[in-house]
């Protein structure tokens, strides 16, 4: 009798936990479909063409310890990483796209990030010590770009310019 009352009290205090997401292949099916569709659409979503995406996945598979897990393929991991980084999307959107938990998205994001950091020294060159000739010779650009390193690839960069100088910079990439 005492055990029965104790068990009833435990059941009353028990917290109802949310149900887990079922393990599905929805993310892999999504990647397969997007890879088969229009390459320009794939480039808009993931900032690279499908053939380059597959080469990146093969490179990560060969040069790093990143591999398919039991339920998630490497391609799905890289695609979710690129969606977060390339589109500045939140984990919630990526979770709904690939039908994975936020924890799985976060774990895979960090795995891919570490793998890319691991291979980055062999693919990235440090900038030279000098300022490019085109910038150095131009009085219009040099004052703004004299200490900048790298190239601008056509993405919009948020900048604050005084109102009197703003007109030439409107709608510029």
Automatic annotation (TrEMBL):
**Which InterPro entries does the record match to this protein?**
DUF8040, HARBI1-like
Pfam families per the UniProt record, alphabetical = DUF8040 (PF26138)
Taxonomy of the source species: Eukaryota, Viridiplantae, Streptophyta, Embryophyta, Tracheophyta
* Signal sequence residues: none
This protein's name: DUF8040 domain-containing protein
Source species = Brassica oleracea (Wild cabbage)
- Location of the DUF8040 domain: 26-116
């Amino acid at each position: 009798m005492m055990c029965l009352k104790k068990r009833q009290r435990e059941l009353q205090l028990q917290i109802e936990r949310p149900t887990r997401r079922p393990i599905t292949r929805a993310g892999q099916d999504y990647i397969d479909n997007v890879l088969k569709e229009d390459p320009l659409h794939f480039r808009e979503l993931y900032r690279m063409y499908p053939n380059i995406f597959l080469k990146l996945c093969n490179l990560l598979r060969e040069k790093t310890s990143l591999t398919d897990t039991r339920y998630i393929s490497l391609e799905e991991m890289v695609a979710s990483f690129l969606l977060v980084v390339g589109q500045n999307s939140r984990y919630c959107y990526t979770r709904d796209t690939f039908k994975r938990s936020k924890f799985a998205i976060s774990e895979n994001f960090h795995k891919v990030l570490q793998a890319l950091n691991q291979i980055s020294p062999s693919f990235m060159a440090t900038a030279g010590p000098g300022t490019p000739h085109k910038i150095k010779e131009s009085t219009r650009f040099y004052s703004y770009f004299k200490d900048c390193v790298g190239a601008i690839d056509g993405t919009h960069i948020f900048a604050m310019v005084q109102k009197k100088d703003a007109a030439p910079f409107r709608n510029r990439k």
